[in-house]
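Support reply, case 0932

Customer input (verbatim):
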Amino acid sequence: MKKSSTDFSQYVGSFLTEFLPHHRNYSKNTILSYKDTLKLFVRFLINERDVNINQFTMKDFTKDLIIEFLEHLRSTGCSCSTANQRLAVLKSFANYCQTDSIENMPHLQEVMHIKSKKTVIKEIGYLDENQMKMLINEPDINRLSGLKHKTILCLLYDTGARVQEICDLKVRDIFLESHPTVKLRGKGNKTRIVPISNAMKALLNQYTDKFQINTRRADRYLFLNKDNNQLSRDGIKYIIDKYTSSIVKRESSFPKKVTPHMFRHSKSMHMVAAEIPIVYIRDFLGHESICTTMVYAKADTRLKEKAINKLAPKIIKDEEFKHDWTNDQNLLDFLNKFK
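Our regenerated output:
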């Protein structure tokens, strides 16, 4: 670091280039999201507070300033949940800095204790089994592009992978022997081995054969774009949008917007409906905490209805439902008194 740089700029640099990648083992995309938050904060200081960033130090990094920054984000249309994510990054940064910046520990801890705003829990968007079947079978596999697109859509669903995990797949990550699996690299560069169906195995074999993918080139990406570069998240979104639009033209009830993450939600919901134990679903999805996975169990109304109907006969006898209250004039008289 240059001697002329402030402690704030030094901490930002070491936080992004040393702590997050090497000590926390965060993925490139996660680090970029942290960088975006810090960049927004610096722009706020310069544009809204008229601060000379070359003179901004850690003693200026206060609770009141962070709250003002968050209010500015919300005033410009930032959602409450996104603002909470920005706050989480700044709290993580404050926690990192307090270890060395002892003199600033009191107000850094104040930053760490800023409470997030309560957000409305959104309903999980997912496709039912028939809708998902319709979407992944929409591509024409008699065309090379259609075969690639169907393989991508099926793999998104079959593995329950995040879209970036599919983009990052390399030839060496697929194993198509007697027990076919796919190795996925998730958040924090953590890997997990996910079993795939025999139908998915057959489709991958067909894809690698038609596209003449040489297994000896194990380091090449499994899916490439038209320029023979790694397929991007936007590329996969384009594929999903293409076939969603095609279905919507003839099926008005089909969701008009399907996101890549809805494949992961759909797989999770279908696994819950199939009564697969939640701990298995957690491991399948690569969640650190089972609390994250439980959101799918809470969202599945079919599972709740099945459990309620299964339990009800054990508690309430059928005879209790046979009484016709319309013939009980005393009860009707009693109820009619309440206007």
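We compared this against your earlier run and they match. Two observations from our side: The radius of gyration is 27 Å. The chain has a mean pLDDT of 86. Please reopen the case if you see a mismatch on your end.
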